[in-house]
UniProtKB/TrEMBL annotation:
Gene3D superfamilies: 2.60.40.3330
Protein name: Transthyretin-like family protein
Keyword tags: Signal
A UniProt-annotated Pfam family: DUF870
Signal peptide positions (record): 1-17
């Protein structure tokens, strides 16, 4: 009985998860006569269901806006060795309908302890539908 409890707690502690803090910041560019809206969603792509780490949405009449969003993702420590981070940007800058584009995937090695990661900077050009 005692042995099985010991073994059980070892297994639990062996795969204990810890927090990774992320911060994403940058500028959004949209040349438009009309007001425009954007939704920025940052996801971790290599899980079964894409995990949303952080999200923000806003509308603007300016040509340039900044964003600064934070989020936390748990590191399960067993499945893989990298965070694979991608932004999904939905906007109506250049058309009446919503346009969606994704940025390239950024791989961040998994740290071995709780970590506050350096801010990830990304410029989003909605007219080009890409990131630069
Ligand atoms: C984008 O959506 C907002 C809110 O629905 C609307 O006010 C704006 O005119 C739209 N912009 C364009 C370019 O369609």
């Amino acid at each position: 009985m005692k042995l099985s409890i010991c073994l059980f707690s070892f297994l639990i502690l062996g795969v204990v998860s810890y927090e990774n803090k992320f911060r994403f910041a940058g500028t959004v560019l949209c040349r438009s006569e009309k007001p425009w809206c954007v939704r920025i969603r940052v996801i971790e792509v290599d899980t079964l269901i894409d995990d949303t780490i952080a999200a923000d949405d806003f509308c603007s009449t300016e040509q340039t806006r900044t964003y600064d969003i934070e989020g936390v993702d748990e590191n399960d420590g067993i499945l893989d060795r990298n965070f694979e981070i991608q932004m999904v940007v939905t906007h109506n800058c250049s058309r009446n309908t919503e346009t969606v584009f994704k940025t390239g995937i950024k791989r961040i090695p998994l740290p071995k302890a709780p970590t506050e990661h350096a801010t990830i900077r990304q410029h989003l050009n909605l007219n080009m539908n890409n990131s630069q």
